[in-house]
Amino acid sequence: MKTDDLMTLLATGAAPVPRHVGERRFALALGMGLLLALAWVHLKYGVRSDLRVVWATPAFGFKLAMPLAVAASGLAVVFRLAHPGARVRAWAWGLWLPVALLWAWAALVLVQAAPGARVALVLGDTWRYCVFNVMATALPVGLALFWALRGLAPTRPALTGAAAGWLAGAAGASVYALHCPEMQAPFLAVWYVLGMAACALLGALAGWRWLRW
Fold it and tell me: Helices (DSSP H) in 44-126: which residue ranges?
C-alpha cells in the first residue's frame, strides 16, 4: 500500500475531537477520586470530632495550605504533561515551593523549641502510620488520574506518572487532614511530605508501565 493510500484510509471517517474533552475528563477523574477519598477517611478513620472548632483556626489553615497549594499546581502540571508539546513552565514551581516554605516554617519552630521537645514535635503521636494513611487516602485519586491520563497522550510517561502521584499525594494529605490530629509544622514537614513523595515514586513506576504508547 502506498503512503498516500494509507493516509487516506486512516483519515476516512475521522471526526473532530470534541472541545474541552480533556478538561471534562480531568474534572470527572478528580471529582470521583476526591469523593472516594472522603468516603474512605470518613468510614475508615473518622473525621476528627473537633473539626468545627479547629476549622477556622490559623493552625489548621496552615496545615492545609501546603497540600492544597501543591494540588492546585499539580493539576495544571499533570494536565499539561498529558498533551504533547505543552510546556509546564512556571507551574512547576508550585510543586515544590509550598513544601520548601513548610520546611522553613518547621525549621523555625524547631529552632525556637526547647531541645527536649524537638523529637516530640517531629514524631507527634501518629508518625508510625501517617505515611501509609496518606498513601491509602491518595489511592482513589491516583487511580482516577491514571484513568484520565490513559485517555490522553502523555509523551513522558514516567514524569507524568510522578507528577500525577505527587498531585494524588497532596490531595490525599488534604483529605486525611480532616482526621489527623497533628498540627505541628515539623510533623507535617516530615510525614505528610514523605507520604506525598511515596505516591510520586509509585506514580513514576506506574506511569512508566501504563502510560507508554
Answer: 51-54, 58-81, 93-112, 118-123
| Calpha distance 11→6 (Å, rounded) | 9
Residue position matching grid coordinates 502540571: 77
Query: How far is CA 104 from each of CA 97, 101, 113, 185, 189, rounded to the nearest angstrom?
Result: 11, 5, 14, 9, 9
**Residues 198, 153: contact at Cβ < 8 Å?**
no
Place of cell 491509602: 136
pLDDT in tens, 98-157: 999 999 999 999 999 999 999 999 999 999 999 999 999 999 999 999 999 998 888 899
The position carrying cell 492545609 is 64
C-alpha cell at 82: 498529558
- Give dist(CA 193, CA 119) in Å, integer: 17
One DSSP character per residue, 69-92 reads HHHHHHHHHHHHHTSTT---GGGG
Q: Quote the cell numbers at residue 60.
A: 489548621
C-alpha cell read off for 202: 509509585
Provide the terminal-to-terminal Cα distance of the chain, rounded to the nearest Å.
24
Contact indicator for 38, 51 with CB cutoff of 8 Å? no
> Are 154 and 160 spatial neighbours (Cβ–Cβ below 8 Å)?
yes
Supply the mean pLDDT for the chain.
90
* pLDDT for position 4: 57
